[in-house]
Amino acid sequence: MTTIAMPATAVQAGAERRDDAITKVSIIVSHGSLEGIYPALIMANGARMEGIEANLFFTFFGMDAITKQKQSKIRVATVGNPAMGIPTLLGAIPGMSALATRMMTKKMAALDIPPIDEFIQLCADSGVRLFACKASVDMFGLTQQDFVDTVEGIITVGDFYGLAAGGQIIFT
Amino acid sequence: MPVLQVLDASLEVDAEGFLQKPEQWNEDLALEIARVNGIPDLNERHWMVIRFMRDTYLRTGTAPTIRTLGKDSGVPIKELYQLFPKGPAKLAAKIGGIPKPKGCI
């Protein structure tokens, strides 16, 4: 096999890390709606795809994303969501949220965006570390057994800050 | 657009070093790109991913998502990140001589 002499700098051009490049992100997921959860998962997965270290910290209703019984029941909020363009009273009609969820899920599937349970697994397999918030777990009366196996632990806010040290924190 | 001189070939690359003309690619070049990007040697598993990436791009005009890569390349997600720690889709595309994947997923 011939060896090709190639200046390393040329192939690496532009790929060099700036001093202020993001190397680690810790993302807090606080909402339990479809549109509350997906952006966080997309950002965590996207971070790993760029070789950036990523943590996900689930708090309040955001914990639904990692709760076995709730993962597949996450829906779009059709009430109190002006961007949906549906009047609040119409959004409250039974079945509206399910319908909006079906439509959005279909569009996302076309873009190869997985359902939430699979996306959580994808994140975990990609090296994203998953944690649940201790205060929320206590408040909702949950235990580690309520969560999918990929959840590494239930941690305090203090633990979270320790985990996030040296990186960026994103609240969603 | 930056041009990379390799022996008698001039390779068109983008600012990050992704080949813009996949037809200019060959396996020796892949080894060299891998080496300067932190992968000193390519094993058969690396090649499976690189070929899948390249073939999909040449066939469809789009690089596969990480999800498709994990499902259809024959190499599961966990192993993809062991093989390409700095990002499997991005690195396999670069080594495979195709443009940088554009998707967010």
Rg of chain A computed from alpha carbons, rounded to a whole number of angstroms: 19 Å
What's the total count of β strands of chain A?
A: 5
Do you know the CATH topology of chain B?
Arc Repressor Mutant, subunit A
Shape descriptor of chain A reads globular
Strand content of chain A: 15-25%
Helix fraction of chain A? Answer: 25-40%
* Tally of helical segments of chain B: 5
What order do the helices and strands of chain A follow? HEHEHHHEHEHE
- Biggest interface, CB < 8 A: A-B, 28 and 35 residues
- H and E string of chain B: EEHHHHH
Report the portion of residues of chain B in β strands. 5-15%
Which of globular, elongated, flat, extended, rod-shaped describes the shape of chain B?
globular
Overall pLDDT of chain B: 92
Structural class of chain B: mainly alpha
Could you explain how this protein is built, in words?
The complex is a heterodimer of chains A (172) and B (105). By secondary structure, chain A is an alpha/beta fold. Chain A has seven helices and five strands; from the N terminus they run αβαβαααβαβαβ. Chain A has a five-stranded parallel beta sheet. In chain A, α6 links the parallel β3 (129-133) and β4. In chain A, α2 (34-49) runs parallel beside α5 (116-125). Mean pLDDT of chain A is 90; it is low at 1-5 and 8-14. Chain B is globular, with a radius of gyration of 13 Å. In chain B, a hairpin with a 2-residue loop joins β1 and β2. The mean pLDDT of chain B is 92. Chain B is mainly alpha-helical and 105 residues long. In chain B, α2 (44-60) crosses α5 (88-95). Chain B has helices at residues 27-36, 44-60, 66-72, 77-83, 88-95, and strands spanning 3-6, 9-12. The chains are: A alpha/beta (172), B mainly alpha (105). At the A-B interface, α1 and α2 of A face β1, α1, α3, α4 and α5 of B.
